[in-house]
Input
Amino acid sequence: MAGGKSVKLHNKSDKPDNIILKEHEIVSKCEEIQEQLPDFLKGFFRYLKGDVLSKTRFAYLGDIHFFCRYLIEETDLTEATDPADIKKAEFNKIKASDINEFLDHCREYRVKQNGQDVLYQNGSRTLARKKSSLSVLCCRFCKTKRNHRHYHRCISERFLRISRLPRYLYQVIKYNPLPCHELSV
Output
């Protein structure tokens, strides 16, 4: 592993050694990102660790860290200067419109690097993953608090789970989105 501690492998599983080392590297990166995020999300981190593949976990944590940076740099929803300093009360104020604005921001944004503006554009797959990351975060965060009003506030019509709907309703929802409480299927 480049730049990190060397790891001695004692593999008793049926996975090849290179796969075990790669997974260890990804888990280490996940732990680094988790240290940079607020402490009140620890339950969510445990959920990700137990129920999601390590690469997906790494991508979700990266998306959530990026969302926290967005909250700090682009909005007035938090007074924090570092993602780890975001308070739970500030996080509870996030609305579906804030998440949707973030997703719009992710389509194309600029970052200053070495005195130069670098333009980033995300495709539909990346935006879908970011949406999924935040959707899972809101679902887990609200389920642990049993606060269903907050759950519906976080999950907008863009976050509707439409997997249980008949095929003909996909187009209806796509072109005529309804608030969560108005959909009765």
